C-alpha cells in the first residue's frame, strides 16, 4: 500500500499587498504554520507550497522556474493563492513578479498565467477579493480583485474568496482544509460574494457583545465608554463574519471587544463606501431591532 501523503501543490502570488494577509496566516495557532506547510495538515494530505516570494529562501529565475514548472507539470491540479489587488492600468505596468527574457512580467500576466490552469484560486484578503485598499479611489493603478479579473478574461477557474483586512488565519486554514477533505465548495456553501458561509454567514451586529446596549439605545460617545459603538462608526450592522464568536489572536479579543468598532474589513464596500471609519455612516432607522 502506498503510504505517501497526497500532495497539493500551491503557488502563492503576492500582488499589490502590504503583506498583512500573509503575516496573519503565518500566525495561525491551531494548526501552526509548520503543521500546515511541513506536516500532513489533514491525515494523508500535504500542502506543498512551491512558491511564495516572502517566505521562500530562494529568489530570481530559480524560484520563478519552480512556479512555472509546477503550473506546467500539475496543470489543473494545483491551487493558486493570491493576496493583494491586481494592478491592471497601463497594461499591468504598476507591478511585476519575476522576469522572462530579461523583461519584467506583470502581476496581471502572472495571475492570468497561473490562474487559467489552476484547480482553483483562493483570493486571500480583501484586496485580492474585491480590490480593497489599493483599489480605493482614485485607484490610479486600476487594481481589481482576482475573480473579477479572471471573469473579464473569460477564465472559468473557480475562485474562492477569503476576504478580510487581514483575513483571520482560521478562515484561510479552514477553507484549505475543507478543500483537501471534501473538494471544492459547492455554490450553496458560498455566499453571493464567493465566500465560505461557514465563516462569513452571520451578521456581526446580531452576535455582538454590545448588542444589548444597541437594543436599549445606549451609545458610546467616545472610545472607552460603555455602550454600542454605532455612533463611533461601527459597521457591524452591515458586516458578515464570525469575529464576535471566533475572536482573534487565538481567542484573546476582537475589534468591538477592544472598543474600536468593526470597520467592515471583509466587505466588498471596504474601504471607500464605509469611510470615514470612525464616523457614523449607518442610520438606526435602517436597522432591524428584532
Ligand atoms: S453597532 Fe457595532 S457595537 Fe453596536 S451592537 Fe452592532 S456590532 Fe455591536
Ligand atoms: S470585527 Fe469587523 S473590522 Fe474587525 S476583523 Fe471582523 S470584520 Fe474586520
Structure at a glance:
This protein has 290 residues and is of the alpha/beta class. Helices cover 28% and strands 15% of the residues. The longest helix has 14 residues, at 169-182.
What can you tell me about this protein's structure?
With 290 residues, this protein is α/β, with parallel strands linked by helices. The chain has 2 domains: 6-200, Rossmann fold (3-Layer(aba) Sandwich); 202-290, Irregular (Cytochrome-c3 Hydrogenase, Chain A, domain 2), CATH 4.10.480.10. It contains 12 helices and 9 strands. It has helices spanning 20-26, 33-37, 61-73, 89-92, 107-115, 126-130, 146-152, 169-182, 197-200, 204-207, 211-216, 243-246, and strands spanning 6-14, 45-52, 79-83, 86-87, 96-100, 103-106, 120-124, 143-144, 159-162. A 5-stranded parallel sheet has the order 2-1-3-7-9, with helices on both faces. The chain has a two-stranded antiparallel sheet with strand order 4-8. The chain has a two-stranded antiparallel sheet with strand order 5-6. The mean pLDDT is 94.
Query: How many E strands?
Result: 9
Between the first and last Cα atoms, what is the distance in angstroms?
A: 58 Å
The value of Rg in angstroms is 20 Å
Task: Indicate the CATH topology of the largest domain.
Answer: Rossmann fold
Keywords:
Cytochrome-c3 Hydrogenase, Chain A, domain 2, 5-stranded parallel beta sheet, Rossmann fold, 2 domains, globular, alpha/beta, two-stranded antiparallel sheet, binds iron/sulfur cluster, 290 residues, single chain
